[in-house]
Amino acid sequence: MKNIFEEKLSSLLKIIKCEVGITAKQITTELGFSKNTLTNWKNGTIPKKSKLIKFLSYVESLQDRIGDNEELEDFLILFTPDDEIEQQKKYNKTNIQKNKETFKSNFNNLIDFLNSGLNFHSSIYNITDLQKQELESNLPNKYEIDSIQKWLASELKVSESQISNWKNGKTFPTLKNLQKIHNFCNLQSDTTFILVDIPKKDFRPLFLKSLEYERHLTEFKQNYLKFIKELIIKSQHIGDFSSAIEQNHCLLTNKYKALDNIRDEIFAKNIIFLNKAFNKCLTNNSISFIEWLFQKIAKYRKFDSLLNEEFEDVKDLKDIADKIEYAFKILDNNRTSELEKWLEFSSFLKLVVKYLKQEELCSEEEEKEEIKKYVNDHLNIEHDNLNNLFIELHFENDYYAFEQFFKEFRDLLLYRDYSPKYLENLIPTSLSLETDVISQQLQANFQLLSDFIENYIIGNEVELSYLNLATPLFKKLLNIDNIQNWNIMLKTKLDFSLLDEYQKLYAEILEL
Asked: Where is each HTH cro/C1-type domain found (predicted)?
């Protein structure tokens, strides 16, 4: 009676002959075995381990041509060294039944994405001309190939029938083939394709390899600025640097506009508090919140000219912000008896008067509509702790210019290719942050840093060595890594590739 190895080997050799036309004799010749080796194995001769491993490796090399075949996989699992067997067994047991549908869905989405080819418009897919060019080089042109499935089979080095089986959910990929799919899609994890639903639209960034290199360049820029900031702090030159910032007018932030933004946040959170506290404390009240509020603020409106100087400076704003945050804690903890006192708190009611005066509305009816709209617009917004606004801007201490300089530098550098409106939300400035303004400001900031480092010679030998190497590269990125420059190169350089440019720059980072 044949043992399991002999039976499995006989069956395997038949599969190889039928599927790829290779005979046992051809296998022994190719592997350098004696001509009767496989025959002897089938008849009970125990194979030497070295020859068995060589044979298994050969069988595995045929797997792509044969496709997912249970008998072939069983043979490899049964007779491959234990550590690899366990890995494949674990993969099969864990994934096949549980994730078969996810794989099928994702694989079909991948094929649909590839079938769409380049039939998209940049405006619809929200991609730049640079990304469109990169996709053109990575995706197949359906007019130049027979079919997407045939092209994909060639890329993955599997048969067309295998692609069809995966697409129809007939078979599940081996671990090796799954890894090929992950590599093809530039996925970081070897399990993403079977664990996570990937919509068709989400395949697009996977084929933009430049995004990964862009991330590395961004990390370098951030780390460079952080490194210099820490050096200045360590060398205790913050005061000198802050003076240099102010002398050279290197801040875009308008302190008064920044305060206006903080004041707006305080107005919003104050009105939301009053509305929520009213609804909790005065549930049986016959009038609405708006009517109640206007009754309460009436006495303060008689003297609204006295409010001109209130809530104007940082100290006043910080004080009222603290009180609003404390009142919200009482509200959240359902301390109703205390809540009623805060509902009548004069400073909160004066804030409403201040807000209405700022809006300069013509009648009380318009004011009521404005408050009603204001409550509706802000009620479901998750407001941050108001004190965070002051921590970020550092209005209270001598380091404001220092902190704000590095925040602005980082924001301008990382978001220069975003819309001006987006940047203006990050940086409260009275200027319009157009491309030229941003470029000039970045150059001025870099020059200030360079001059300061040169004049104060901060850092030890290792730190200065890094600065000497990293500063020229940072300056280079400052000048060239922006969408305006890349678009010019795209139009003027025939063989331009953003991916190639990013790879060259990343190689320079690795050399530091």
From this structure: 152-194
